[in-house]
Amino acid sequence: MPISPIMKKISAFTVILLMLTAAGCATKKSVKVSKQKIAPGSSIVVIINCPSNIQNVVLAKFMSRDFRVKAFNASDLYTSQDVFDVKDMKKIAYTSNIAGPDSIFASQKLAENIYKLHIYNYEINKAETLAELKDKWSVQYLVLLELNDWENVSWGRAINLASYELVWIENYPTRYKDTLETVVDHMIGSMSGM
Amino acid sequence: MIRILAQLCLPLFLFVFGAAGAAQAKMVVAFGYLNNSSGNINYNYLETIFPNSFASSIQSIYDVDTIKPLQIEEVLNKKNMQLKKTYEYGDLPGVADAAGADIFIFGSFTPLPNNRIQIVLQLYMKDSREVFSFTNVGKMETEIFKLVDRISLIVTSFLNDTSVFKLRGIPAGSRIAILTNIDGSELNRLYAPFLEKGCPVICIQSNDLHAATGSDRFGAFWHIRTRTNSFDSIADWRSVSLKRTAWNAAADDRHIRETRAMYSMYEDNLLSMKNDAMEKLKKAFNNRVDVLLIVGFSNNRKTAWLRARNVNGKELIWMQSPITPDSFRADPITAIGEKIASSMEEEIKNPFEK
Q1: Which of B70, B156, B161, B219 is the most buried (most CB within 10 A)?
Q2: Where are the domains of chain B?
Q3: Which residue in B201, B221, B334 is closest to A166 by CB distance?
Q4: Cβ contact B262–A131 (<8 Å)
Q5: How many domains does chain A have?
Q6: DSSP at B305
């Protein structure tokens, strides 16, 4: 029995829709790799992106599970945009009495060189801060958390400051029935293996 | 009737114009001299022999038209030009145009102690105005053909669709740091394949909630300059005109001085500044970084490009683009991460070895 053109279009549309849905789901799948369990009693610093009252809830959760939480937060560090803005440098390169496309290209290249050095230096500065956390504050692990609502993905990451290695990562698709506390509980359980 | 004629003529039409298109699309690779930088005139004969050998070797395995140095010399002479042994980057567009080449290759060689020889090759690509240069060392007499084959292999791999340059595989257990333009949960999806493979991932960028490299400006890392191997764009600094007239004000002069100082610092001294930065990076992570992987994702995350730098040797060791997932259903970031992680140790297969 021949398939009508409308049916063909519907089939094609359905296939495309399924492909897009599959690709969309793949990006929201849970991801977890743990190379090392972070045992309660470990000295940690937690960096999270939420208001202070919510940060307190998160830190309290870690403390209630016997982690030694050091007083430190991302707000203690300058963000790259605050301090290392290279837009101004780029402007200097562009307004330097130059003419013609080759000149602009040369100036763009100069701005790119400055940008690359800036990124390297930014990473160096952060690594030096981590060394301070380890040496002066005796911090063993840096834990990063981003907590998101239902239909989005909450994620966490832990770094062993003795080796500077990533030891735990997790992407957790937040469920409808989840609350802030259940997500944090999940993350702590996943990280510590308890 | 017209339909029948059209059906009969279509294959002929496709054959004729397809063949014409294919012939047109064939890449022209021109070889200049390989300058003898030793100063010993006994080696001068190699200045032509090397490029001729590379041209023959490359043409034997890759579908390109090659032009050898003496042929370019003839073409250039007709245009009152000469084929020089060395070129400034700014001169390359002119010589490639005059030679009718899509790719112009030139370089130098230096005999080393213990009967070894160092060859530096530079590939100028006309369309993108980019130069890829690399260094290779081999034995002078016994392995000279192996050396030619090895260098030809590097050239052909680079000219392929995936533009691969791989100096060597990255040994298992190497500690890698990844610099990329994604962050958050996406970054975790990139890390997962490396961690699952047991590869130690050092915390560059992962120590932050948001990447400082998240903007389009990350494309700056597409070009990479190292002591031995580089992939760079041509910027002809001689074309930069700075305003200087009889009516120049003091501020204009200061501006010119500042601009010159910037060019000198961030272009002429870039390599030493970057090497210093690599040294500081190594120290900041307590000598725990072996390889820095720079991975640039497209906006839709479906393709990526890669640059790998050996942090200890401060050299470019791997370059590839584009990297795409094998399956459209897979998460592209994880799939690209898997591809990179699984091919880290691999060497490029030598088609000359049967």
Answers
A1: B156
A2: 27-160, 176-233+272-343
A3: B201
A4: no
A5: 1
A6: E
